[in-house]
Amino acid sequence: MFRNRGRKSAGILVLIMMLSTVLAACGGGDKKTEGENGASTALSGTIEIDGSSTVHPMTEAIAEEFGAENKDVRVPIGTGGTGAGFKRFLNGEIAITNASRPIKDKEAAEAKEKGIEYHEVTVAYDGLAVVVNPENDFIDKLTIDELKKIYEPDSKVKTWADVREGWPAEEIKIYSPGTDHGTFDYFTEVINGEAQVSRNDSQITFSADTNAIVQGVAGDKQSIGYFGFSFYEENKDKLKLIPIDNGTATVTASAETIKDNSYAPLSRPLYIYVSDKELERPEVKAFMDFYLSNAGALASEVGFVALPDEEYQKEKDKLAQ
User: Domain 40-125+269-320 classified CATH 3.40.190.10?
Assistant: First the structure.
């Protein structure tokens, strides 16, 4: 059972300590693997992870739980963005990379050229939240075309009145994830028609730190931004979530609309990639098995939507093969 982060009662702690003492007396402790000559050895080592800041909260939570059971295994996790994560992964610097988009053709070609074999593992579903400042009282929804008008290359939009007639002629402050982010790739592809294609002028601020976008939108009445739904869930008291008219219906991002894909086109799967070579290390293999055994229970805790149980089993079966 996962720990209730930040809300453990004293009674539960005492019970856990008592149980831990009993388990230790009975030979409990860190997970063991079979070493040479059948000897039982505790897992140890370092599993370095980098990549998507969107996927980071889930992988970090998994690593925390895994570390509680395997105290001699270190799992440092960076948040350099999906693109930066793939660069490190393809250079053999990390065992696992978090990704909020699938690996690109050119990245896959580089992996093949370098002889790097890997597994793509789907771990959850996520949606992109489009947010404005809570004091914005005139936006009830945005269409896909209006989002494109705001974010497309060479956009002529300077004020809200340029987006929709009748809105105030106040200059918009626009925020976007940085160009290394899988979130940026995904948004620009589904909204502007091509990944990495975006306006790039004085009105838009790109940031590798999603929390900086949260603070920017929260601090400016005329601002707009987007990022993974989990970041909105963590900061909903500071932001206003905007429903999106996708041409068929006007839908608000939620766990339900992301899971049933009615929030299309701004819903997506999330991934981790693991190197086959690294997977031969017992601590990496154990971590991946732990990840897929517990991702379903943990996804909603960090603001994502879990896959069906059978899908996690399929992912485990793929790794076993």
Answer: yes
Question: Strand, helix or coil at 255?
Answer: helix
Residue 288 · residue 279 · CB < 8 Å = yes
Residue-wise pLDDT tens digits, 111-136: 999 999 999 999 999 899 999 999 99
Is residue 279 within 8 A of residue 119, CB to CB? The reply is yes
Q: How far is Cα 150 from Cα 236, in angstroms, rounded to an integer? A: 23
Listing DSSP states for 89-123 in one string gives HHTT--SEEEESSPPPHHHHHHHHHHT--EEEEEE
The CA-based angle 116-182-58, given to 5 degrees, is 85
DSSP 116-180: --EEEEEEEEEEEEEEE-TT--S-S-EEHHHHHHHHSTT----BHHHHSTTS--PBPEEEEE-TT
* pLDDT (tens digit per residue) in 45-96: 999 999 998 899 999 999 999 999 999 999 999 998 999 999 999 999 999 9
Q: Is 81 left (phi over 0), alpha (psi -120 to 50) or beta?
A: left
Residue type, 308: P
DSSP 23: H
CA–CA gap between residue 14 and residue 56 (Å, rounded): 31
- Architecture in CATH of 127-267: 3-Layer(aba) Sandwich (3.40)
The answer to whether the 40-125+269-320 and 127-267 domains have the same CATH topology is: yes
Where in the chain are the domains? 40-125+269-320, 127-267
Nearest CA among 74, 19, 89, 87 for reference residue 44: 74
Three-state DSSP state, 313: helix
Global pTM reads 0.70
